[in-house]
Amino acid sequence: MCEAVSEALAIDRSLVVQAGTGTGKTLAYLVPAALSGQRTVVATATKALQDQLAHKDLPHLAEHLQGELSFAVLKGRANYLCLQRLSELSGPEEQLGLEGVEKLPKQALAALRLWADSTDTGDRADLPEEPPRRVWESVSVSSRECPGAQRCPKGDECFAERARHRAAEADVVVVNTHLYGLDLAAEGAVLPEHDVVVFDEAHQLEDVVTATAGVELGASRLTAVAAAARRVLQAPDLIGDVTAAADLLREALAEHRGRRLRVLPDEVADALVFARGRVETLMASLREVPSDQPEVDTRKARALKLTGGLIDDVAVALEVPEDDVCWVEGEPPVLRVAPIDVSDLLRVGVWQVRTAILTSATIPEALPDRLGLDDATELVVDSPFDFEEQALLYCAAHVPDPRQPGWSEAVHDELAALIEAAGGRTLALFTSWRAVDEAAEAVGARIRTRILTPDQLPKAALLEAFRSEEETSLFATMGFWQGVDVPGASLSLVAIDRLPFARPDEPLLQARRERAGRDAFRLVDLPRATTLLAQGAGRLIRTSTDRGVVAVLDPRLATAGYRWDLIRALPPMRRTKDRAEVEAFLAGLA
Questions:
Q1: How far apart, in whole angstroms, are the C-alpha atoms of residue 557 and residue 563?
Q2: By CB neighbour count within 10 A (0-12 exposed, 13-18 middle, 19+ buried), where does 244 fall?
Q3: Which of 301, 360, 485, 568 has a CA positioned 20 to 30 A from the CA of residue 48?
Q4: CA distance 104 to 187
């Protein structure tokens, strides 16, 4: 892989590498990138990998290159402490104009002020203790709100700007894929110029770019505008109108939650038009505020940027482009508009202007085509692990089809028996929150060991508890199918409740199916399910000494006509349909 990356950089030809677990893919792209003399941006989808790059791999490489390599980590603006916002909270006169400031915990603010004097980065991740969410939101700004260093009294000291300057001078810059997507949408205004981009966990690239290239509108956007204006204007009627517009939009969207909107319903369109009118009126009043005081001018600039961005996004939502899809999701409800196809955006913004290295343990065969990557070298690098010896793939072929009555009860029976045989040590992955809750209740009453679920602890604390308590099981949903690394005895069984096919009514995929026509299942549904299944199964064997079982509790893996597409994407484990064989294997690991 290292040789292939080196050649790709030398001839300026993009490369797609499927690199199995344990291949050392991170160093395989970092070493040639560091030696190439070309500025490289590494975009990864998981925080764990960003931390590994920043705190382990890049320092190690820089040491061996004797100082010839510089690197930096760059995050979204809201991850950095805003010194201007912090200064605005420093005294009673400033606080009078800020809604809710008096309710902020004084102790938490005092701790942030002390930290601001000592930190070199201002990065939220470097805080010794996580502050309450509303406190951090009061001392940070998003890219939607920040007016830029030139318009800010604290611009010369800004932590986010310092991070951008360090990134602009570094040989290797580490970002998350979401930030790279924002840079694409902003036509290169976010990241420094670079010659090479590495997309690690590249199987997630299409979804991330789709999300960042679209528009998201909800009541919270309007309430943020109202709050920003309140810091500048004494105009309760105007601000109240914007708040009322937020309520109206929330009510209009709630009726359509979970639906694709092929035509914007009248009540949603009316709510958006009403909101735009109220925001435009507020914006006109903001512009009339004198800019004779730096503090007021900065607040005014932030409010104007928020209002301008909101007006632009409302215009997009009212006239959805032909190649975009529109739907409502979430609680509280949010209107989303996103492109069905991001290949042109990637082609113009990435493939035609720089060398790209795409890598993941799982690369769907159709991924380069979907991304518009027409001319790239492709390489498969197998894992060095002995999967036939280390792992067993079990399909519970005897349980009912997931679409038939009795399947949930049969899955609970299987889980209870397998977890007992494994002595806990199980990561059970489900395709819905409801399935997690039902299984945790049903199985928990029948086994001797503890079950953890995501509603008990934050994700990082949950994983730490799972790692440290060997006989514990963790029941989780989609957020844990990827990026979870638990090597060793704490994880001996990965159980997957059903093949992870998307719902037929999921709006974005529905639109992609319509575009694909008769080939929809082959081009849209099967590659997605194959990738997710392989990612879920990949949680099991993380080192050369790990051993265990991947149990798929969906008989379609053994019976469906497409089963070999799924099986070929999994590591080459020994396969069985016999639960007794699985129980004996697990018992032998204890």
A1: 5
A2: middle
A3: 568
A4: 38
Cα distance between residue 404 and residue 399, in whole Å: 10
Q: How many Cβ atoms are within 10 Å of 319's Cβ, its own excluded?
A: 10
Q: Is 150 left (phi over 0), alpha (psi -120 to 50) or beta?
A: alpha
Six-digit token string for 33: 């990138």
Dihedral over Cα of 225, 227, 230, 236: its sign: positive
One digit per residue, the tens of pLDDT, for the chain of length 590 reads 999 999 999 999 999 999 999 999 999 999 999 999 999 999 998 877 888 899 999 999 999 987 789 999 999 999 999 999 998 886 544 444 444 444 677 888 889 999 999 999 999 988 988 888 888 988 999 999 998 888 888 999 999 999 999 999 999 999 999 999 999 999 988 999 999 999 999 999 999 999 999 999 999 999 999 999 998 998 999 999 999 999 999 999 999 999 999 999 999 999 999 999 999 999 999 999 987 777 788 899 999 999 999 999 999 999 998 899 999 999 999 999 999 999 999 999 999 999 999 999 999 888 999 999 988 999 999 999 999 999 999 999 999 999 999 999 999 999 999 999 999 999 999 999 999 999 999 999 999 999 999 999 888 889 999 999 999 999 999 889 988 889 999 999 999 999 999 999 999 999 999 999 999 999 999 999 999 999 999 999 999 999 999 999 999 999 999 999 999 999 999 999 999 999 999 999 87
Q: For residue 485, report the phi and psi dihedrals to the nearest 5 degrees.
A: -125, 105
The C-alpha atoms of residue 40 and residue 487 are separated, in whole angstroms, by: 30
- The greatest distance separating any two alpha carbons of the chain, rounded to the nearest whole angstrom, comes to 79
- Six-digit token string for 529: 């399910």
**382, 342, 363: which is closest to 527 by C-alpha?**
363
Q: Could you tell me whether strands 355-360 and 14-19 are parallel, antiparallel, or unpaired per DSSP bridges?
A: parallel
The domains located in the chain, with CATH, are 2-70+170-213+342-381 (3.40.50.300), 80-159 (no CATH), 216-339 (1.20.58), 387-587 (3.40.50.300)
Q: What are phi and psi of 61, to 5 degrees?
A: -70, -40
In sequence order, what are the beta bridge partners of 548? 391
